[in-house]
C-alpha cells in the first residue's frame, strides 16, 4: 500500500527472549544453587591422622632379655635373704672390741649329764613328724675348772634380760668371754663382774645388738644348758661384706630337724632353712646377704635349733618381729627340749 510502514521482525526477537527466560528458569528449578556464602566455623581444630604403619612397618627392635641375678642356692637365700644378696654397717666401735669369733664355744670334750638318762631308741619309721634318735649333745659340763667357775658366775645372773655371756676355751689355755647386749655400758660392767678375781686371763669379745633383737637372747637363755649351747654353731667369718655369703656349719644335729634363723638389726626374723645342706652327720649352710640402708654398729644374730619334731612356728611366723616370733616359738611344743646354738655376724 502506497504510504504504509513496512513490517518489522520484532516478533522473532520476542520469541527468542521468551525461550531464553523459560530455559533459565527451568534450569534453576532443577539445579537449585545455594547463593549464600559459607565460611569455616571459627576455632574448629584441625585433626591430622598419621598412618605410622607406612613408616618402616616391619622393622621393630628386639625386646631385651632380662636375666634375674640369683644367688647360689645351697639346695637351691639366699635371705635369699639376697633378699638376706638376705642381708644385709661400719666396724664396731673400739670400746666394744672385735667381732665375736666363731665358734662361740669350740668343740670341747664335754659331758652331757642328760644324755646318759635319755633314751636313744629310734622311733617307728612311719612316724612322719618324729626324727630318729639324736646323737649325743655337745654337753653341759665343762671339764676345764676355769670354765666351770665362769659358768657358775654366769648362771647366777640369769635374771637379767637382753644379756648373754658365752665363755669358750681358745686353744689349750686361753679363755674367751663373749658378751652380747643392746647396751655397751652393760657389756663393760658384766665383763668386769664375771672376770673379777679369776686367776687366768680372759679374752673379751663384745657384741652390740639392737634392742629389738633382745627376745632372741632371752629365748636362748631359757635353755637349761646355758651358758653352754646345746649344739655347735661355727661361722666361717663373722665379718661379711654386703653381697657376700654367710657360711658355716652345725654339729650335733644328727637325727634331728635343724632350723637356722637370722635376726637382723631391725629385729626381723628370717628363715634360712632352705640354705642348709645336711651331709656326713653335719649341716652346712651358705646364705648370700646384702645390707640396705646406712651403716650401723649393731650385729646380726644367727640362731640354730635342733629338735625331734619340726617346729610349726618357723614356717608360719618367719618375717615377724623377734618379740612376736620368739613369744610364739617359746610356746611351740617342738622346742620344749630343743638344742640351741647362737652366733653373731657383722654385715658391712
Task: Describe what this molecule looks like in 3D.
The protein is α+β, with helices and mostly antiparallel strands and 348 residues long. The protein has a single domain, classed as Macroglobulin (MG2) domain (Immunoglobulin-like, Sandwich). Helix content is 20%, strand content 22%. It contains 6 helices and 14 strands. The protein has a 5-stranded mixed sheet with strand order 7-14-13-9-10, with no helix packed on it. Residues 38-80 and 82-137 have low confidence and may be disordered. Residues 116-144 have a biased composition (Low complexity). Residues 81-92 have a biased composition (Pro residues).
Strand fraction: 15-25%
Question: What is the CATH T-level topology?
Answer: Immunoglobulin-like
Structural class determined from secondary elements: alpha+beta
CATH class placement: Mainly Beta
Helix/strand order, N-terminal first: HEEHEEHEHEEEEEEEEHHE
Largest sheet: 5 strands, mixed
Net shape: rod-shaped
Calculate the terminal CA-CA distance, rounded to whole Å: 143 Å
The overall pLDDT, averaged over residues, is 72
Architecture in CATH?
Sandwich
CATH H-level name... which superfamily? Answer: Macroglobulin (MG2) domain
Strand order of the largest sheet: 7-14-13-9-10
Number of helices: 6
How much helix, percentage-wise, in residues? Answer: 10-25%
Unreliable segments (pLDDT under 50, ≥5 consecutive)? Answer: 38-80, 82-137
Number of strands: 14
